[in-house]
Amino acid sequence: MANARVTVHPEARIDRIEPELHGHFSEHLGRCVYDGLWTDDTADEDGFREDVLGLLADLEIPVLRWPGGCFADDYHWEDGVGSREDRPRRRNLFWAQGREDVPEESNAFGTDEFLEFCERVGTEPYLAANVGSGDPQEAADWVEYCNYDGDTELADRRRANGHEEPYGVKYWGLGNENWGCGGQMTPEQYAREYRRFATYVGSMDNLMLDHDLELIACGFENHEWNHRFMEEIGNTNWGVEFPLDHLTLHHYYGRTMSIAEAGEEKYDQFLVEALEMDYHIERIASAINAVATTRDIGVIIDEWGAWHTEAVAENGLEQPGTVIDALSAAAVLDIFNHHSDVMTMSNIAQTVNVLQCLVETDGDEAWARPTYRVFDLYAPHKGNDALTTTVDTPSREVEHGDDDLPFVGASASVAEDGETYVTVTNLDCRDGHTVEVAIEGADAGDADVAAQVLFEGQDPGLEAGASNADEFAADDLGVDVDGDVLTVDLAPSTVAGISVE
Ligand code: AHR
């Protein structure tokens, strides 16, 4: 007998699920860029890692944010262009903080390498400009170097560096965590700085006519801060338009949990913490709506994911890639779908080797982590219209805030050709649950129904490595179809994707 019910309401469409909700973030930190995206050992002649490139291309990642993170607000882009032998070596203020063991930044991987990497993967670049220690001219020059097609010194420099055509970079972040590592600013101070930068970077947009830049400000998990930022941003008084297209925040969870020591109780708390993403999206949307509208200014979560006690600066923020983390990613991607009316992008931290990366490398081996499998299973949602989905589920009381852990979660979407896709999670690490999925008004009896499941029979703490990575691939899942009701048995800590054609 089913003990949980998911109801999909095809008549109640939410909005398009922007493919960018499956975006990524790569920082010059630990082994993310050097060893992850770029290496001298297994690389092709340009230094790119073909194995990582291939895994990311297969996943069709829609957007990649770079070069930070905190790194970005101490990064000067001109250090990383031109002949590699002439590029200066630097110590990054944030990730090298007085530690001799952290390698110096060689600047071997710079703007042209990053943008070429994006071209090869087939993904949209998102550059984060330095507001903390940079100036508006430097940021505007970066835009000109990347995007301008005329006959200026900067455009010619790009050509001399081997890129005749402008890159047409669309997404530009102005600052990162400027309440903290990006300059310890008050919200009012950052809003004024943001306006100043946006004036110069934004004017490049007019200059280049056919390049539609989208400018992004970095918010905070403290929502009073976001309200004050928006109030000051809106305080132009003189009817001057300023460009702000997206407001972001960062949400990491699991900071007090050690993967090595965690058990069922910790898993429950961790998942409840991950589900707080829902609250943060609602609150940041409300800060935007107090001054403007989420139609004009979208919500981005441009850093998110699990961050455990294993990930410390000394080891380049590395932690094991496990089933429990992957389960949290599924729950968060469902939340993004529910908020497709306000959300324009998200970027999981970080693509390779760092935090909740999707790909891990060791020497000349590279493999997909369990979180990669979740992104793959959720891929059919990309570009679909999200459908309102309600869930009736048992739950468990958890020692973390006031919220219980709901065992079953879900989201649904419909493609242009009418195919419905439903993802269902069983966040209960102890017991299996039988879930009925009712698609209102549909007669699934005449439809082609197919389902896949991840992590059946695998322990939540199970870690992926080079030798067992294939064991995390999806398996077929049996579905019982009765009219518009589909019934699936979900083993503990599993994720399923069901398509109805
Ligand atoms: O992703 C690691 C760090 O977390 C980023 O550099 C910073 O933006 C955040 O605090």
From TrEMBL:
This is non-reducing end alpha-L-arabinofuranosidase. GO terms for molecular function: alpha-L-arabinofuranosidase activity. Keywords: Carbohydrate metabolism, Glycosidase, Hydrolase. SUPFAM superfamilies: (Trans)glycosidases, Glycosyl hydrolase domain. Its EC number is 3.2.1.55. InterPro entries: Alpha-L-AF_C, ASD1_cat, GH, Glyco_hydro_b. It comes from the Archaea. One of its GO terms (biological process) is L-arabinose metabolic process. It holds the Pfam family ASD1_dom. It is an enzyme of class 3 (hydrolase). Residues 302-494 form the Alpha-L-arabinofuranosidase C-terminal domain. Belongs to the glycosyl hydrolase 51 family. It catalyses: Hydrolysis of terminal non-reducing alpha-L-arabinofuranoside residues in alpha-L-arabinosides. Gene3D superfamilies: Glycosidases, Golgi alpha-mannosidase II.
